[in-house]
Design brief:
Blueprint (H helix, E strand, L loop, with lengths): L5 E7 L12 E6 L5 H8 L18 E6 L3 E5 L10 H16 L4 E9 L6 H12 L4 E6 L9 H13 L7 E3 L8 H13 L1
Parallel strand pairs: 2-4, 2-5, 5-6, 6-7
Antiparallel strand pairs: 1-3, 3-4
Bound molecules: guanosine-5'-diphosphate.
């Protein structure tokens, strides 16, 4: 895929506002501060799509980006922000679950894991949801420029597989918004998801 055009289509705060569209979509999810906005901006060619947040967890909405007038990239709200109130956490859960439960246009999800933090409890829950709803997914290890050696990448992948409870058939893509490593692999994976 070459991204020629990208535009924000809709920002959704409530489940009932989730749009019905005739186009297929792929979604990105992860804990807040995992580097999701940076990744989206890098992958979709620095169109400055998603605002890189200085305040983690600021974005509580589901953002739909229309790419090449052909498909959607869906930016799901980040989870695990400690300062979120119980009510806000409930709201987040309801929104994200309503999205995942009944989304026949959703062809694949990228689950983002911070290379330096590893999978958290909420990442494991997310992985379980994806399995439960039968949604194809892959894992992206973000901020891999922080790893000191290339060899750490193999260890990282093993650790992610073990903690997240996934086997070899689920792909793990190392990614850095700094070096742009992994950008092509993510675009390829988007294409594969959309072809399914
Ligand atoms: P989001 O909350 O998941 O959307 O995360 P952001 O994209 O806003 O990034 C959170 C923080 O991590 C920011 O301070 C970014 O500068 C930093 N960050 C994001 N991606 C990378 C990366 O690939 N490498 C490094 N070293 N830092 C990153």
């Amino acid at each position: 895929i070459t991204v020629k055009k990208a535009q924000l289509y809709k920002t959704v705060f409530k489940p009932e506002d989730l749009p019905d569209t005739p186009y297929n979509e792929v979604a990105f999810v992860g804990r807040s501060n995992v580097g999701k906005s940076s990744l989206l901006n890098t992958v979709v060619k620095n169109y400055r799509l998603a605002k890189v947040s200085s305040l983690p967890g600021k974005t509580r909405s589901v953002n739909f980006y229309f790419i090449n007038d052909k498909f959607f990239v869906v930016d799901l709200p980040g989870y695990g922000f400690a300062k979120l109130s119980k009510a806000e956490q409930q709201r987040w859960k309801k929104l994200i679950e309503s999205y995942l439960i009944d989304r026949d246009k959703l062809k694949g999800v990228f689950l983002l894991i911070d290379a330096k933090v590893g999978p958290t409890e909420k990442d494991i829950i997310m992985r379980e949801w994806l399995d439960y709803y039968g949604i194809p997914y892959c894992v992206v290890a973000t901020k891999v420029d922080k790893l000191r050696k290339q060899s750490e990448k193999a260890t990282l992948k093993k650790m992610i597989r073990r903690k997240l409870g996934i086997d070899e058939d689920i792909q793990i893509i190392p990614f850095s918004a700094k070096t742009r490593e992994g950008r092509i692999e993510i675009l390829k994976q988007i294409e594969q998801f959309l072809e399914q």
